[in-house]
Amino acid sequence: MSSLLLRGGIVIDTEPQPHVTEYTDILLEDGRIAALGTGLSAPEVLDVTGRLVLPGFVDTHRHTWQAALGATVADGTLADYLARILHGYAPRYRPEDVYIGNLAGALDAASSGTTTLLDWSQLNETPAHTEAAVDGLHASGVRAVYAYPGAPISTTPRTTFAYAASGPEHAGPQVAAEEWRAARELGLPITVHMGGHGRESADRGLAFLRNSGLLGPDITYIHPNYYTDDQLRLIADTGGTASIAPISEAALHIGYPAVGRLQAHGILTSLSSDSVTSGPGDMFSIMRTAYLFERARLAEDFTTRDVLRTATIDGARVLGLAETTGSLRVGKQADLIVVRTDTLAMSALTDPIASLVLSATPADVDTVLVAGEIVKHNGRLRNHDLSALRATLLESARYLAA
């Protein structure tokens, strides 16, 4: 049995609600959380005294393959994104570009504290492209849900699958009906971009699902910002969940991020990075943006604790992984991050949760563990030649832009 003790941390757990317990030990055994308390022991000890220890973040919608295209659509709109990325760059991708994009993108996420992500893949032109995408996720060491329009492949203990549907707003009703049928025959949850492309489009797409009897608790709606209160009640009544990407939604004009409205209707809501082509991919930036949008609309009851819960355990619930990750409950997988508190911005820990949400940055993430395996330590990713990886990513970027 392998054991590791994280000793003396300022522990932030997220169940039943985010809360802080200071000077706490966390014992990990065989990749799982075995105990929390004081005076615990193990053969191997990691001293985290005075540092924040919390569950890794959960990103429920990331086009991971776009890692080589960072900031390509800066100052653009959704139309620019579709033209430049999906109709411009995407057709040029070779399997090797998909692999390095997914590997680099997943490692970038892990480095900033995201231990679980849903990779929403649009690059499945050939079986080789799909295999390359999954291989890149496997090589990164993150916990991943690979979402694409097909059956599960190349499974590992850290990889599950979802059905990435084009949906009625993009592909039309006939294709959408076929997608829903395929997903449910495969027993896969459905993740779909709906509700973020204007009121008329949102109305038309949701009406199709309702009239066709296709609504259900297996659907995660991405960018559902244009739905009315009545439509949100319909989604809530049928058990649908949501993924909000506040940075890309603001940058690309995909509607005002609806985190608070969704939660007010009882819809389980999560956060996502979407695409690094139009904003940063780290959960600190995403949490802060979601929090500030809610405060800007005078939602005084939306707190830093609410946004941390949305970025952790609620994300795990949306992905169907709440029994695996998202909190520090004994028996769960040891997906943890350790955040430094010895910087000027993080020194005054009057409220550790508020400081984490409002002041921490990816540079403060000292250690990342996924299933008890150390992916990052002392501020550096492990098990990868980063110089070689960057060189390969740059080569891919130059090829794609040629």
Q: What does it look like?
A:
By secondary structure, the chain is of the alpha/beta class. The chain has two domains: 3-56 and 328-380, Urease, subunit C, domain 1 (Roll), CATH 2.30.40.10; 66-318, Alpha-Beta Barrel (TIM Barrel). The chain contains 14 helices and 17 strands. It has helices at residues 78-89, 95-111, 127-140, 168-171, 173-186, 199-211, 229-237, 246-251, 259-264, 283-296, 304-311, 313-318, 352-359, 386-401, and strands at 3-13, 19-29, 32-37, 45-47, 52-55, 57-62, 114-120, 143-147, 159-165, 190-193, 219-222, 241-244, 269-271, 336-339, 365-370, 373-377, 380-381. Strands 1, 2, 3, 4, 5, 14, 15, 16 and 17 form a nine-stranded mixed sheet that branches. Strands 6-7-8-9-10-11-12-13 form an eight-stranded parallel sheet. α2 (95-111) crosses α14 (386-401) and α10 (283-296) packs across α11. The longest helix is centred in the N-terminal third of the chain and has 17 residues, at 95-111. It starts with a strand and ends with a helix. The model has no long low-confidence stretch (mean pLDDT 97).
Can you tag this structure with a few keywords?
8-stranded parallel beta sheet; Urease, subunit C, domain 1; 402 residues; 2 domains; 9-stranded mixed beta sheet; TIM Barrel; 23% strand; 17 strands; alpha/beta; single chain
Structural class: alpha/beta
Task: Characterize the overall form.
Answer: globular
Return the CATH class of the largest domain. Alpha Beta
Largest sheet: 9 strands, mixed
Radius of gyration, whole Å: 20 Å
